Amino acid sequence: MGLGEVTLAALALAVILSCTSRLNVGLLAIALAWVIGVYFAGLPLREVTAGFPIDLFLTLAGVTLLFSQAHVNGTLDIVAHNAMRLCRGRVGLVPIMYFGLGAVIASAGPGNIATTGLLAPVAMATAVRMRISPFLMAIMVGNGCNSGSLSPLAPTGLIVTGLMNRIGLPGYEIDTWLYNLLAHAIVAFAGYFIFGGLKLLTRSERVEMENEPRQTLDRHQMTTLGMILVLIFGVVFFKFNIGMAAFTGAVLLALLRAADDGEAIKRMPWSTIIMVCGVTVLISLLEKTGGMKIFTDLLSSIATQHTVVPELAVIIGVVSAYSSTSGVVLPAFLPTVPGLVENLGGGNAFGIASTMNVAGHLVDVSPLSTIGALCIAGIPSGDASRRLFNQLLAWGMSMTVVGAIICWVLFA
Questions:
Q1: Residue 183 to residue 173: CA distance in whole angstroms
Q2: pLDDT confidence of residue 130
Q3: pLDDT the model gives residue 378
Q4: CA-to-CA distance for 103 and 80, rounded, in angstroms?
Q5: What are the residues whose beta carbons fall under 8 Å from the beta carbon of 3, sequence distance 6 or more?
Q6: Stated pTM of the model
Q7: Which residues, including other chains, have CB under 8 Å from residue 145's CB and lie 6 or more apart?
């Protein structure tokens, strides 16, 4: 077995363990890269560690720190609460509001997981109180949060932007975000109308929210919200480096005592950051040892130019249902795009990459993912919880097929 095969086997082991164990595969990937790179390939340690994505690490750390501060001091909670008042108790609009709220907040920077953690408990409690199907609400809030996951300001979007730049597809940040948002909007609103949304819209009674008075932002929260808006404005119009700008904003908030930076650091998603960076080290070694070409040849051997999109969508959907989309699946599959296009004799590289991005995320509203699990945790345990688990499991598995169809329509 050559070095390429050994490294590819190590990547396969990491993916399998990410599906079957609670071990952070980023740690495993770093250990495997060291053993294989130094003791099998004979590479200097500095060449192995050169694969660590320092720019990505700083970007993720800066952005997640700033939004952790906004979460710790209650800014995001108040924004979400007051946005819900716009429904004025209209039952049918409530799930739609949660979809829109999830999309906007996730796209603004916190990303899908953090936004689901913020909204899912409130959304599911609202569903129980307003006699809305918990399954319907989970579909709307879960897909809403996930629809903003590939925003160029969100952590997963930043990961994908770095990967797309590496494979020669720069400048597609907005397109990547909007295609993902469109796909999630399609499945969410299809689910909304199939599973009782139309009946909710025709319900004549209103559930009043008079017992939930409007909450106002205090001085520290106004400062935090203003800092986030300045960050977005600077990144969009002045091309600020988002990671460095976010670090600067976080430091200013800490100096102004607008947020507890110590508590915010504890709440940062360190597990995800380590997972992404660790797997990237192993992927970098895979490229150096020729394993990436073997992986690409394997994928292209089961597809043609006409079938590559739906086939990849199903494969990635199945793997992503049991593994981390941003931490494992996309870092492993996106680097194969240039080789796939070459082996297949042509094709739409952006379409293939977008298939990976969209198909990997559509399955994430399942109980096997953090998003689905947070929705289930938002309702009382018992028969309703077990039923929701089964419903979301069926929904997530169905998205492997639905995702393939949507990707075929959009990208084939």
A1: 16
A2: 80
A3: 79
A4: 12
A5: 36, 40, 41, 289, 290, 291
A6: 0.85
A7: 102, 103, 105, 106, 112, 113, 115, 116, 119, 120, 371
